Amino acid sequence: MKSAADLKNGEKGIIVSVDENHPSARRILEVGFTPGQEIELITKSIFSDPIAYAVRGTLIAIRKNEAECIKLL
User: CATH no. for residue 66?
Assistant: First the structure.
């Protein structure tokens, strides 16, 4: 199963789950990365950290290690 970090610019995915064992899992869920939501990768910084996603009509940037805990269809 691929993660949100595996998306390419402009690519979309549907969130299946967020790894609850990740230290930032609660924050990731609170900002809108919840199962069933469609996300789109807008841009990655030069070193892929942070990564900006469109989710729930807003732009949110998270770190690559946080994006890796978001599993997609």
Answer: 2.30.30.90
The whole-angstrom separation of Cα 73 and Cα 71 is 7
pLDDT value, residue 47: 83
The predicted-structure confidence for 46-57, as pLDDT tens digits, reads as follows: 887 899 999 999
Nearest Cα neighbor of 37 from 22, 21, 63, 55 is 55
Share of the chain above pLDDT 70, in %: 100
Reading across the β-sheet that carries 51-55, which strands appear in turn? 58-62, 51-55, 38-44, 12-18, 70-72
What is the total count of domains within the chain? 1
